[in-house]
Amino acid sequence: MLPRLLLLLPLFVGLPTAAHAHSDASMFGAPSAAAQHDHDDRAAPRHPATLSFDPRHLVNVVIKINARITRLNNLYVGKRVARNEVLGEMESAELETVQATYLGLFRNMDAVQSFSMTGNEKLIDARMNLRWRGMSENDIKQMERAREPLKRIKITAPESGFIYAVNVVNNQILNTGAPVGQYTATGTTILTLARPAAIQIETSLPIDVARGLKPGQRMTVHVADARRGEVALPAVVQQIFAFANPVNQRQRVRLKLAGNPPKGVALPAGLQASVSLEEPDHAH
GO annotations under biological process (predicted)? Predict the structure, then answer.
């Protein structure tokens, strides 16, 4: 029996010793990948936040004539639009009449100037009337070239920004009523735009975190996008409110975006987000 054991002993001695070693480097003092990830998360915690808009930077798009909305160009709350971008179209018998009056003066401008010293002033005033009633400069030039009233009038964005509210639908009739004076009709607000400066991010941070912040400090706002997934937006601290909530020991902080978000990212009012103290390049 003893000779057999002596013969098998070299086989056990020759087995690879690595099979008995633990593959986790943490047993030698080095952190594992999971531990490193947990450390990163602890280094940059996120706090819930909500998007809001400063009402001082809201712009109404108002139609001041009786008209019908014939087309809206895929308008939705949070959509980003550019200045002079076509938002939709409308048609108005009232505006066609005003166009015809303007064209009568425009076609006969030479004859009007021959017997009237105020011919140019009349044309300028008639042009202002068209602009006030919703015609863009491009529409007026197109009408002058065609020498005919335009049936459909483009509705354009007066400024760049984000759609804050949409108040109309396709084929809706707008009845603004009778104007009081030439340019004082209230009109119908069909949508509201928010300038980029209107976007605010409201959050409540633990007192010890808020105490270490200062206006202008860089942070990151994380929002969810249907196409891109999570999007990290650079932001800066705008205001640190003085009073803290004694119940949850948190302090209100307001941020503002440091630039325009990527095109196509919708930012509606009330959107739930999160904020972290790191800059976007270091955000996870």
Answer: copper ion export; plasma membrane copper ion transport
List the structure tokens of 94.
Answer: 């009232």
276 and 44 in contact (C-beta within 8 Å)?
Answer: yes
Roughly what angle, to the nearest 10 degrees, separates helices 93-107 and 119-132? Answer: 160
Q: Residue 150 and residue 154: Cα distance in Å, rounded?
A: 10
Nearest Cα neighbor of 150 from 85, 93, 66, 73 is 93
User: pLDDT for 176-228, tens place per residue?
Assistant: 765 555 555 578 999 999 998 899 999 999 999 999 999 999 999 999 988 88
Residue with tokens 């920004």, as numbered in its chain: 161
Of 265, 241, 248, 208, nearest to 45 (Cα)? Answer: 208
252 closest CA partner among 236, 263, 265, 241: 241
**Are 202 and 254 within one domain?**
yes
Q: Hey, is 215 helix, strand or coil?
A: coil
Tell me: do 93 and 143 sit in the same domain: yes
d(CA 81, CA 163): 7
pTM recorded for the entire structure = 0.70
> What is residue 2's predicted lDDT score, i.e. its pLDDT?
42
The residue segments making up the domain with residue 278 are 45-55+198-282
Six token digits for residue 71: 């087309």
Q: How many domains does the chain contain in total? A: 2
Contact 63, 156 (CB under 8 A): no
143 is a domain residue: yes
d(CA 48, CA 70): 41
**212 and 260 share a domain?**
yes
State what percent of residues in the chain have pLDDT above 90. Answer: 55
